[in-house]
Amino acid sequence: MSRLLRRSVVMLLLLLVSIPATAEEWRWDGVSRVVAVGDVHGAYEELVSILSQAGLIDPQMQWAGGETHLVSMGDLVDRGARSRDVLELFMALQPAAEAAGGKVHVVLGNHEAMQLSGELEYVSAEEFASYADAEDPARREAAYQRFLSHGGVADGDQAKADFAARFPPGYFGHQTMFAPDGHYGSWILQRPVAIVINGSLFVHGGVSDDLAVADLTALNARLSGDLAGYASAWATLRDTGVLNEATPFSERPAIAETAAGRERGSPGQRGAPRERGPQCGRRVGVAPLDDVTHQLARRAALGVLGRRDDRVAIGVIEILFDQRRQRAG
Question: 3-121+172-326: which CATH architecture?
Fold first, then answer.
């Protein structure tokens, strides 16, 4: 097995065992004050204003809320230019609130899930630019060479301009930070989908009728595990060349399954769709798809997004991804 595949498998296992497993972590009673904040979407200044007026932070941006429980309803990122600052603020406030007897909760929104799954249509150029310091020039150059190769275009000013338009400065730094083992990706993967405080359920976007929410431990572990699985499979298949940054979200399952079936010497179980362009990957990539990668693809990219044939898959799609249908979530 290649080093890349070994690293991906180990990363997935670490992510799965890191998911909190006790129900008490998702239920709190007797909380004297609860402050809930809706979709922030990178509006850092407005968030600071709200928290200040609520008495939760002081002028030095330190926790001042005592035993208050602050709940973010998700969608911290996208649209606004300062999503990274929003994330850093919540990450800094969590341990400070804990030390004071309070709590800062962040439940998953669909836009956090989209960051890990590579759906970046709502990320602005300004937001990408904030990740320029995390971008490896060698990785950007390698991506540019793949862009030329897959597109069949010659190097030149126009090609560079087209590449920069598709992948603005900071794009690959953002990708690194939101990888399953990245600074923000690993933190997001440990956030719950739902919590209960004083008997009230806090969840982003509503609850599917197909899910029983009485057992919050099972709900959060299963949905977080599926998101971790998808994110790991997406990263693996992208890094091995089966998929690339330009592969449309909706086409990934079919392409992954076709590639897996081709590598194993058999057609994909759902048929072999006709290749539709460079995003389909005419070669398997720098590493062959062995059984481990095939299972990652089937478990995550296919099982969760391709078939929707179990309660976990339904829950992930409806709770984390459903607002994509409305184009306004």
Answer: 4-Layer Sandwich (3.60)
